[in-house]
Specification:
mainly alpha; 2 domains; transmembrane; membrane; transmembrane helix
Amino acid sequence: MPKTDSLPFKLLYYFRGGWGLYFAFIFAAINTLTVTYFLAIDNYPALKAIFPSFELYLFTMMAIGMPLLTIIGYTHYRRSPAYSSETGVMIRANPYMRRTLINSELNVELNIKICEILMKMSNKEDTKKEMLELKAIHDKITEFVSDRKFSNNKDLDYLKDVLQD
């Protein structure tokens, strides 16, 4: 695994997050509102009659824009296939994200089998069959984990197999 405690790269990551999420967003909003008002609305008497001052324009755009953009954002994340497509691309492109997803899939498979065995044991039932299945799962996971690396496509191949099932 690459070195993850490099201070300059951590600072660069935090800077990019602060810039992209906060500064650039606020700066772009202020810039858009200022430019549209003073270059478009201020020069057209019909629009100037609707928005006689920049403050009224700003208040109106915030009152309409913020709820509208919130609805658009909600739709993007919850109702449209766009976000799931973005996530699929990120999982394919980012081996660390892909590894986390696959590890959780492996954990779920193991936990289900262990829970089945524990329930049978608590009911004093025979668990030989389940123990053999658990051993098979263990062997499969051990082989998979020993062969995979961030530099090869074993995780991606496993993910494709899971998605086809």
